[in-house]
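In response to a reviewer's request, we include the raw inputs and outputs for one of the modeled complexes. The two entities were modeled together in a single run.
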Amino acid sequence: MNSLPLLPANIVDIIGSSLAILLSFLALYYARILVRTEPNNFIWGFLFYFCVAMAAFSLSRGVGHIVRIFLVFGGQGALWKELSPYSGGFNTMLIISTAAVTIYYHKGLAAYKAIRSEAEKLSEANSKLFSSAAQLKLLNTHLEEIVDERTRNLSTSEKKFRKFFENSKDIIFFCDQSGYLTSINSSGRELLDLDPSLERVSFYDLFARAEDRQRYVDALQKNGFVRDLEIECRGRGGTRRYILFTANTVYDQAGTMVGCEGIGKDMTRLKTMTKQLINREKMASVGEMAAGVAHEINTPLGIILGYTQLMLDDYHQGTDAHANLEVMERQTKACRRIVADLLKFSRQADSVKAAIDLNQLIEEVLAVTEHSLNIHQVRVIRNFDPHHPEVIGDAEKLRQVMINLLNNAQYAMAEDGGRLFITTYSQQEEVLLSVRDTGSGIPEEIKSKIFDPFFTTKEVGKGTGLGLSVIYGIIQEHGGSITVESPFIDPESGETISGTAFQIRLPLSEAPKQTDREHT
Amino acid sequence: MKRPPYRQHCWLLLWSILCAPGSAWALQPHSAPEGLYVHQMSHLLFMGALIYLYWHTRRTPELSGRGWRYLQTFCLLFAGWNLLALVGHEAIKFLSPGDFIAKSSWNEQIVGPISPIKMVYFITKMDHLLYVPALVALVVGLRSFSQEVLREKEQ
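The model returned the following structure tokens for the whole complex.
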């Protein structure tokens, strides 16, 4: 190759320089957009200053090249020679500036990243703070409503349980560690007959028997609960009730017993009814047996008595044989009376019923027996209701009822005498007769046997043990009931009075009713 | 407080210089080739800076995406241009006015035979063929950044 023309290089130089100026300023334009959009972004800031340096360099260099070509090729080479050092120096300075901007970029970036990291943390913390503040504000705003709602719910719940507690017909109670009642519902206070004036009542003191108390405490301590434990409880006035207890031990967080809570169900009525049912069945069985025995004995006794009386005619009075036969006749008649009483108890005796004035009937009996009573220092106190209607009954048998009751009363007050209260009054469709003495009373253990035939506390030969059995049979025959209360508790004062009270209920109509016998 | 012993030596040296001057050390003369050396060194500095920028942006995870790829391309191309310019400046030192004909005119030519130095000079004379594509990469990269930022702002 002989020569290499430089025209293409000069053309490339001119066009390239022009394009370089254009492109560098275009780059600066986009960098400016970045800086304006995100002025706090360090990278965009770096690129902007880099582009400024690049644009300045491209402008300086491009203009320099173009000027050089046109001056030199236009014959102004000397002028260019003057300008050339300035253009070159300027270019060098801008190259160094651009390089310096680039070199220090990483330090700026590191600082920017550190700042941005802290800013992000701060922003996150601010965001959390804002969120917390918003929540706190919301909570504050609704705090009153929330408190109101919860108070309302709590109050509703408390009322519900309070109502259940107070309206329950069973006993609901809470005790402390020592067994003192901390809370008990109204049914509990009523059933256990608690003194409202007492501030502290020991639950265990209500137990009638010490062994029951021990059983209850042992079960609570050992098992942590008591289930269906029947306890006999004693109220303030000595009233006894049978309560079926179910209770739990209350523990604190450390597992130490701090008290107990429980429910008690009154079983007294059920127990009484069960006793009554058993007694009724027993008396029915005994009655049937007595009736059978009486019938079987009555006929031979009649024959013995008849032959005895016939034989009496065969011997002269004053002879030994006559005297022996009189003893036989007397004893046989005694046996017949016993048999007759058995028949009355078993309701096998014939009755003639008519309208009877009970007050008059009692007066008739007292007319015969009061003298004897007075001799034994028994004062009769009458308390008759003059307006009560008449009852339908067998006057003879009812007289016997009164005689037997008065005899028993006299026997009970035999030692020091006493007072005998006889009361009549009407109640709904019944006439009530109460005979109460101030005697020794009936021990609890024999109370259930007093109406049994041949049961007696008297010495041998002084009683047959048929008095109350006869009364029971007669009253039953009249469709009534008889109850016994010993000792007697005054219904008005609640005072316990020594003695025994029999209360007889007789119906006003002829229709016989179910009979009851109660021991209280 | 006790003064450190080297302070006394410093004071002694300063007094010696001021009180017993030899040649004038105040100003340094600058000969002609100094400008070219500075210029060449600036090319080297700029090239190093661009290579560093390329390397740093490559290894920084946050600086990834289309725009950064164009910026890295720019760095490589412009570092290459710096090298080309540096070579061109060096090559011209090996040429004499006799190597050109019709100098300072549109018909200017390099006289044959065309040696490698002359060919290198010719090639480096057309450095804009590297310079312009490098700036195109810079423009496209910045355009990508700006579009991205504007899109994010709109969102």
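As requested, we also summarize the result in words. Residues 34-154 of chain B form one domain. The CA atoms of residues 43 and 82 of chain B lie 5 Å apart.
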